[in-house]
Amino acid sequence: MTAPRWWSRAVFYQLYPRSFADSDGDGVGDLDGVTAHLDYLRSLGVDALWLNPVMVSPMVDHGYDVADPRDVDPLFGGMAALDRLIAAARAVDIKVTMDLVPNHTSSAHPWFQAALAAGPGSPERARYHFRDGRGPNGDLPPNNWTSVFGGPAWTRVSAADGRPGQWYLHLFDAAQPDLNWDNPEIAADLERTLRFWLDRGVAGFRIDVAHGMAKPADLPDMADRAAESDTAMLTSESNDPRFNNDGVHAIHRDIRTVLDDYPDAATVGEVWVFDNADFAKYLRPDELHLGFNFRLVRADFTAHAVREAIENSLAAAELADSPPTWTLSNHDVEREVSRYGDGAQGLSRARAMALVMLALPGAVFVYNGEELGLPNVDLPDDVLQDPVWERSGHTERGRDGCRVPLPWSGDTAPYGFSAAADTWLPMPAGWGPLTVDAQCTDPESTLSLFRRAIELRRGRTVLGRSVRWLPTAPDLLAFQCEDGLVCLLNAGSTTVDLPAGQVVLASGPLPGGRMPPATAAWLTYD
Ligand code: GLC
């Protein structure tokens, strides 16, 4: 039997570069800020970083609108800063993975600019999805697709004579035109991009919208949908022609062919597909190495919902014969402390769920700030930056609230994040007790809990692929991992007795050896 590959049990730290640490005092985090805090990441014990996009971008969607896929934006310190980070991270045995955005480019990408200039029917326009409009004057969009960010998925451009011209497709913002993956130039260019970064020492990619890219040839209308909520990203219906088209698998196979030339690198796909058989297709041996499974993100804090999410994720992974993956939050969803009710209750639940997640077999993704127990932030209208806010006609506030910069030290904003008082999103009052400085010496802090849990996880030789469910009262959850570790969660409202066994870690106090609500514990048996 071959040894498991590093990614199959790694703890990935998702790092939102704008919000981690600012080294040059412009109020926006950057890559030298990351390098300066590698000791922090090392003491947290993570195996790898996933950097949200750092490529050259006008930053309409904060880097998910890429204007040059083979260069680092000066805002983040340029290519030299990435090289410094990769080298310094390697020295402390942390791998660096990057975000890759193959579904669309920025409208500032030279290809899109050329497409605008070249006009209908040109090879330049064939790199994107340009179509004539419907209706007598072509005034109506070519189909009824909606953008994930709100509004129509089509924008009309001007013809050379200044009159209204063709429409182009964008499943996200109008500044993110979708690429036409039927055009072989697109795959050839992506191969260049993959090799470019892998040759620089990048250990793999998180692939954005990995269930997108391929479009049905005739771009058929989608079924009418009820108004989408701000968690629209989390929905995916099997009959939605915008996503999960069969052609996407050939694209993943091409990507895998390149990755196979770099055997220590891995891909993890953002796959918002909830049918397990469909999801598993992305993880066939010649496609992605890992696929994000978002069931824990969607689970309420009840024993039933959490168990169902875990069972389902394990079943999907088993079907795919691929390591399971776990994530409680990311840069697109409300932070779990707030999802679970905010305040002391939200925090206790989030800490308990962290122990559940870190007990499980497979790869784990920790979103920066999760280890500090940060809540979502209610931001005033005038600072909102997520394109969702504008595109939804100010009905959806968007994702800025989970992207506020990390607090490092001190009692007032910007809490050591930046030398600038004005950070790209304002940091709230009252975060003094949540700073890294305040938490790192407190053994009861959320940061200490994550450090200890990750340390114990690293020491576990066998994580395996499965868990054994143990019988419990209805509001409890208990599973035993392949190495014997038992994780117990009290998702109910009364304090319960602990079973026999040695408690090696608990997410909160266990007064009198009993377990209060919203607490989890790890137990071992000699
Ligand atoms: C993914 C990213 C999200 C981004 C979108 C468009 O869902 O996670 O942040 O806005 O793709 O690229």
UniProtKB/TrEMBL annotation:
GO molecular function, one term: isomerase activity
InterPro entries: GH, GH13_cat_dom, O16G_dom_2
Top-level taxon: Bacteria
Pfam families hit by this protein: Alpha-amylase
GO biological process terms, semicolon-separated: oligosaccharide catabolic process
Glycosyl hydrolase family 13 catalytic domain mapped to chain residues: 14-403
CDD domains: AmyAc_OligoGlu_TS (cd11332)
Keywords annotated in UniProt: Glycoprotein, Isomerase
UniProt keyword Isomerase, yes or no: yes
Gene3D superfamilies: Glycosidases, Oligo-1,6-glucosidase, Domain 2
Family: Belongs to the glycosyl hydrolase 13 family.
PANTHER family: ALPHA-AMYLASE FAMILY MEMBER, NEUTRAL AND BASIC AMINO ACID TRANSPORT PROTEIN RBAT
Protein name, UniProt field: Alpha-amylase
Taxonomic source organism: Mycolicibacterium llatzerense
Lineage, opening ranks: Bacteria, Bacillati, Actinomycetota, Actinomycetes, Mycobacteriales
